[in-house]
Amino acid sequence: MRRQEQREKRYVPVQVRFDTEGNMRPMIIEFDEAHAYTIDKVTDKCRAACQRVGGVGIRYTCMIQGQETYLWFEENRWFVEAKQ
Amino acid sequence: MERHILHVDCNAFYASVEQQRRPELRDKPIAVCGSQEERHGIVLTASYPAKRRGVKTGMAIWQARQYCPELIVVPSDMRAYMRISRLARDIYERYTDLVEPFGLDEVWLDVTGSTELFGSAMKIAEDISEAVKFELGITVSIGVSDNKITAKLGSDYKKPDAITRIEKDNYTDIVYPLPVEDLLYVGSATSRKLRSIGISTIGDLAECPVEILTRKLGKMGAILHMFANGRDISPVQRTDHVPNIKSVGNSATTPRDLICDDDVHLMLFLLAESVASRMRELVSRCTVVEVYIRDTELNSFCRQRKLQTPTCSSSEIANIAFDLFRKNYHWDKPVRSIGVRGSGLVTADAGVQLSLYADAIKRDKWERIDTAVDELRERYGYMSVRRALTLADPLLGAINPKDDHTVHPVGYFGG
After folding, report:
1. B279-305 pLDDT, tens digit each
2. Is B415 within the bounds of a domain?
3. Does B273 participate in catalysis according to the annotation?
4. Searching chain A, which residue's CA lies closest to the CA of residue B138?
5. Judged by CB atoms within 8 Å, which residues 47-66 of A form the interface with B?
6. Which domain covers residue A68, as residue numbers?
7. Residue B171 lies in a domain
């Protein structure tokens, strides 16, 4: 069995598009100076607890270059479960 | 018509919220405490590993450490707990609008009208339990019954993360053997009285003739008898999220123990000033004054008196509180904490029934003096104007109860 990787809660800047209804669509995760990830598609959005690194908020399931990843919106901040 | 009532209890709520957001604390003995300082700090909530070691809510931190030396003390963050409590309420409101909170971590739901839409009460309980776990990362215990009292017994019956249904078919099996103290409203005083006449379980209480109970406990006897028999007709009361303020209180654990009437007199004046000042901010007056005392052995009591005329005068409140104290405390032990509360609040601009005898002009003068003091303090700081009395003891007199100390919400005195 694959050992679960250690993850940490990392707050990240995110570029967001608001539509006319006021819905938010995260567009680009600016992970660090060298890495900005364009979100190709948001496949799910729900309220969820993040058990791995701790936190409670709205969870966006994002497709980035064919990979599925979670992006969380918690009290007006965005975070990801970053590899340590 | 048979009702379907759920009682939902968030297990070890404050501790669970901390463990959710800080994974490194999970499965560890932790205690969420009010203040880190050994003397003031008491355990608000202990995690299950800490509970198993004997740590209980209300213990001083040093006491808790005697049971569990490796206890991790976490300062409380009420804002975070209120947020999660609010989100939990959002979940409950998907199933019913009849939601009655009981503190931040407990709630009653009446789902009688929701079963057609969402399935049986048990199904709703399961859905809520799952949703809270998934969305908030904490667990709940749920009691399912046809009334509030029994539903609460159900949520207490099995913890954590459990659902217990108690209805007519299994009521006596589950409830009768429980200790009588498990019943809501049976506190230590009532428990002593009941045990003195041989009632130690809820079953004993249920089967005791009601006349004996009313003789012993007054009308509360009849109410408890109904509760013990699973007959509670009280409705689930939809409560506003922000409750109307019904009382204003302030209490302090003093920097040193109080040992004589003079010490208490001084503290009561300080606390009464802050209580009266907050009442004026709320444009209200109180009709009941309560005093709360806890001694060095942590025994506590409170006494209250109804007033002839509503007041927000600090002197009047302090003098009544002091009189209540003198009549009820006999100095067996020094006093550790002390509190004053004005309850039965009425709006200050409403008409007041004047007494024929009481000196209304004098009261009005005192209230105007208090208002002037408020304004001076607002502009020049709390210490700019003080009662001479507070100079009698520099340590106690320097306390500013209004800004420094914890303001307790309604229900602090168990009201």
Report:
1. 887 778 899 999 999 888 878 888 999
2. no
3. no
4. A49
5. 47-56
6. 11-83
7. no
